[in-house]
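quick one: fe (ii) ion bound model?
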Amino acid sequence: MFMYVFSIGLIVAANILYSHNGGIIISNNLLKKTKTERKTRATRRNCFGRSVILEESTMKEEKTLNHLMAAFAGEAQANRKYLAYAKKAEAEGKHNVAKLFRVTAEAETIHALKEFELAGKVGSTSENLQAAIDGETYEFKEMYPEFFSVAEEEGNKAAARAFKFALEAEEVHAKLFQEALDNLEETEEVFYYLCPVCGNIERSIPEKCFICQVPGEKFIKY
Ligand SMILES: [Fe+2]
Ligand SMILES: [Fe+2]
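yep, here:
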């Protein structure tokens, strides 16, 4: 806490110094700069010990990493939320509002992808496949079983059904990612078929979805 207050003090002092030296009043623009950027300025323009500044700098970078992931989570959620709102607006005949939600959803995706990348979360394709396997496995082995049983206990049948569908589909996703990882050098084109109801994915069109029983002709080809 002391270090944080101290660093804010340094930043303010450095900015005031800057405004005096350069004859520039502190502008909104300057205030909007990230703490890391301001720290760089403070390093250049004050006479405090260098080791203290470096320690502070490391702390800020770690905070920024957390901020990147928090921003990514928020933007990713906003993207899906706006698509749900667009669908609703479309159903109500509000086509312009639907369009605004869709274009903004895309904008949030641009933010989310940049933040995720800057957080260093995009690895090689084999690393990414492994990360996907881990995530899907956690979901179908731990997260959804727990969510499903709580929904059943609470008598929320719709939620229990949605969790059950997701649980079973995530297991399929994990298997497909594993298959892709095992055949990473394979170049022959592969096709996937998505169930639009439960999120199951098949390698060929089934007669009906083994999870939600939707007829095969409803599946979407990728
Ligand atoms: Fe999944
Ligand atoms: Fe399905």
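The first strand starts at residue 193 and ends at 194.
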